[in-house]
Amino acid sequence: MSLASPPPEGPVRPTGRFLWSHPAHAIALGFGSGLSPWAPGTVGTLWAWLSFLVLDRWLDDRQWALLLGAGLLVGWWACTLTARHLHTKDPGCIVWDEILAFWAVLWLVTPTTGEALWSRHLAAFILFRAFDSIKAGPVGWADRVFRGGGWRGGFGILFDDLVAALCTLLVVALWVFFN
Fold it and tell me: Is the model's pTM score more than 0.85?
């Protein structure tokens, strides 16, 4: 008896039923935000922003670090399994990568308050979406390095967004430093 996945029959379009058919699907598809018919990555990033604002009221820095670390490991599993079930290497509907990476960005740019907080959040959102969408430079390299199926593909789904997050943080840090 083989434990290998059945051969792909072509990409599967996820539905609400698919979303809730396995916990990995719910996580990888951003609890439904990845089902958006237009720009699921942007919708997933907006969901990340909203959920960050809610969660940040209750989580301290240690808890955020634990959530991000656990989210990376659980996300790796969820993205790998969901991509396999969708018969696609990096489906656009998988948005856990955007959620996790943007949570990290927001966590690191949030120690300020008031108007500066909102301007940093907005700048971070625009920069992150640009880096993630355009995939130029290091983000494009990261996207190519881990392309494929299996564990490598699941990590690759996450990796390019983590690099986009690092690029975003670098630009925000330079902006703060020079202002």
Answer: yes
